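Weekly sync, protein design subgroup
Attendees: M.S., D.O., the rotation student, P.L. (late)

Item 1: inverse folding check
M.S. brought a backbone from last month's batch and wanted to see whether the design step gives back something sensible before we order anything. D.O. pointed out we never logged the input encoding, so this time it goes straight into the notes. Structure tokens as presented (517 positions):
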């Protein structure tokens, strides 16, 4: 018997009937991502015929009013404009349940009674915790105490999806893991990181392990260093100021998104393409990261905060002048960090990670820079228009572009036409939109389908989460354990971050790769 409810290998469509209950159903995530993603899955025929979506929140909506509001969300945020027929077909699966998680002791009893007794609600259950993080433990405990969590071997299954942040540090992440595992089996927990749902993130594994010509180069003999950049142009829009000021860039981006990209580019080939095999290899990478010793953080990491500037041609305020931000806030909006992975493949190859708000361009990319040949036999030329100059030899670079222009770029040297033996940097470029025109699946669309199908490959495991926190814990401890005189670098909005970010290269003969096109 298939107790997990997982679809057959090679199957994309979900087959088991299910009811998805979204706690916090009137929030921004449901409005912008979850409902448009679920609608897209339904419109493409990837959901089973029998399914239901129950929005749980404390606003006084009827099911009809909730459907009308979600219809507007789908029209606004769905990847492609919905037809009236497809939208009507989807909306009949939506229901609303009024309840207050914090103030009403009977909220879970009423929900359980409805889920058990309403014939329109299938009895395989998914619970999506789209609520503030300090409610996670209470919610999971209440689900268990009210009989809404089944055993892993029950023919009818139940699953819980947990949004980030998963803890605030290593200690709280461990406590949350203990609480989750006291009521749920690991196979029932889906810790969601939307970066892992992006098509080009998944393509890193395909590129490395489906092509015999590339993966043998991914090691200390050929790779000089690797840079991982996740740059955002946005600031504190959508009322995120209060959340962000209490969170900061290390917790918001570095601990989860960038750690996952590091794992995918550095991991060993899994024995098979299964959830546990892949996650085992990612954990090994994190366990191989050299801990930053006390007193050494300043040489390994730089933090910054944006001042007023210009982004995409419009003036934007400084972070401290944003809505719901303390005027003397020391919260970093930028971080650059060096990571060393001490294993047989990567020892001696530094990984440079950076991410920040209000940077020059919205771009996420991984740059694998290869070593220069041991002997420079050719002159290297660089041309701007018709003007060419001799320059230092350029290293080969392999660039994974995660967003926005999804693709893979390979930079290498080729001989220029002419009588002289000179080489110039040239580019081989693969773009998803050129090869496969159309809209790439949204990250949440892919991840929601995986939850429904019971595929946990793209979700983080408990030991993986704790290993990620162990990597960044020395940085948090150093920066948050100091007084206000601790160094916080400044950078104007619309730049690539503080100049001090280059200091983590130390005596290394390189600099940040800043894409301009």
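Designed sequence read out in the meeting:
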């Amino acid at each position: 018997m298939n107790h997990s409810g997982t679809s057959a290998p090679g199957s994309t469509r979900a087959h088991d009937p299910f009811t998805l209950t979204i706690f916090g159903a009137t929030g921004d995530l449901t409005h912008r991502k979850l409902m448009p993603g679920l609608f897209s899955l339904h419109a493409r025929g990837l959901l089973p015929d029998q399914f239901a979506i129950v929005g749980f929140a404390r606003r006084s909506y009827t099911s009809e009013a909730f459907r009308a509001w979600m219809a507007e969300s789908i029209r606004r945020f769905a990847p492609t404009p919905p037809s009236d027929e497809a939208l009507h077909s989807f909306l009949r699966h939506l229901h609303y349940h009024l309840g207050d998680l914090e103030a009403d002791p009977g909220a879970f009893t009423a929900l359980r009674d409805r889920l058990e007794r309403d014939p329109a609600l299938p009895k395989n259950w998914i619970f999506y915790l789209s609520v503030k993080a300090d409610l996670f433990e209470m919610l999971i405990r209440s689900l268990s105490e009210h009989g809404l969590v089944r055993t892993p071997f029950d023919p009818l299954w139940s699953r819980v999806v947990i949004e980030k942040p998963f803890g605030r540090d290593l200690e709280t992440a461990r406590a949350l893991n203990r609480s989750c595992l006291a009521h749920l089996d690991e196979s029932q927990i889906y810790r969601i990181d939307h970066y892992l749902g992006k098509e080009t993130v998944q393509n890193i594994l395909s590129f490395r392990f489906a092509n015999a010509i590339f993966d043998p180069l991914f090691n200390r003999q050929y790779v000089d260093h690797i840079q991982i950049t996740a740059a955002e142009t946005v600031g504190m829009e959508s009322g995120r100021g209060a959340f962000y000021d209490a969170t900061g860039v290390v917790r918001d981006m570095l601990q989860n998104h960038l750690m996952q990209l590091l794992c995918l580019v550095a991991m060993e080939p899994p024995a098979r393409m299964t959830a546990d095999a892949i996650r085992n290899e990612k954990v090994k990478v994190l366990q191989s990261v050299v801990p930053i010793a006390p007193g050494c953080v300043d040489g390994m990491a730089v933090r910054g905060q944006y001042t007023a500037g210009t982004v995409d041609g419009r003036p934007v305020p400084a972070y401290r002048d944003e809505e719901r931000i303390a005027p003397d806030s020391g919260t970093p909006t930028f971080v650059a960090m060096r990571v060393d992975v001490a294993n047989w493949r990567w020892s001696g190859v530094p990984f440079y990670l950076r991410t920040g708000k209000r940077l020059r361009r919205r771009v996420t990319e991984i740059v694998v820079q290869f070593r220069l040949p041991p002997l420079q036999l050719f002159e290297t030329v660089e041309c701007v228009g018709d003007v060419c100059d001799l320059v230092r030899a350029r290293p080969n670079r392999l660039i994974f572009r995660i967003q926005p222009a999804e693709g893979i770029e390979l930079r290498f040297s080729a001989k220029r036409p002419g009588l002289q033996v000179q080489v110039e940097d040239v580019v081989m470029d693969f773009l998803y939109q050129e090869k496969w025109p159309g809209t790439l699946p949204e990250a949440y669309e892919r991840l929601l389908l995986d939850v429904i199908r019971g595929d946990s490959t793209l979700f983080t495991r408990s030991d993986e989460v704790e290993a990620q926190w162990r990597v960044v814990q020395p940085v948090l401890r150093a920066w948050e354990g100091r007084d206000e005189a601790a160094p916080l670098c400044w950078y104007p909005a619309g730049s690539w971050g503080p100049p001090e970010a280059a200091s983590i290269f130390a005596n290394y003969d390189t600099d940040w790769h800043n894409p301009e096109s």
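Discussion: Confidence is low (pLDDT under 50) at residues 1-10. DSSP finds 13 helices and 19 strands in the chain.
Action: P.L. to compare against the previous round before Friday.
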